[in-house]
Write a structure and sequence with these properties.
Blueprint lengths: L5 H14 L10 E6 L4 E7 L4 E7 L3 H6 L3 H18 L6 E3 L8 H11 L5
Parallel strand pairs: 1-4
Antiparallel strand pairs: 1-2, 2-3
Length: 120
């Protein structure tokens, strides 16, 4: 796998280091965040079965129509993933920042998920 640049290489090494410790199960899935330049996505993953239980992203019509900034989009995705998780009967998760710094969009997504009722 060819890595494009040093930033991606650094993020992948951090991701491997964190993933050694953080594992999701059916009772306590892993809340992982992916951030692109324009969008942000969150998934609840059961690592034992290798399945995605709940997913949410900022590509929804409300976000595109209302011209939100990226921080507001992350807050919306955090609340959305929390609502879907509670509807699926999941209250407690393990947070995986996926090699990104806990700052900015990743932090606002996590705080909105906590406000939405998830415990981590």
């Amino acid at each position: 796998m060819a890595i494009k640049n040093k930033k991606d290489e650094r993020r992948n090494s951090i991701k491997k280091r964190v993933r050694k410790i953080v594992r999701g199960s059916a009772e306590r899935p892993r809340l992982t965040v992916f951030r692109s330049n324009k969008q942000i996505y969150a998934q609840l993953i059961d690592d034992d079965q290798g399945k995605t239980l709940v997913a949410a992203g900022s590509i929804v019509k409300e976000a595109e129509a209302s011209k939100m900034n990226k921080i507001e989009q992350a807050k919306m995705v955090g609340k959305l993933v929390a609502e879907k998780a509670l509807a699926a009967g999941i209250e407690s998760v393990v947070f995986d920042r996926n090699g990104y710094l806990y700052h900015g969009r990743v932090k606002s997504l996590a705080e909105a998920a906590r406000e939405g009722g998830l415990k981590f």
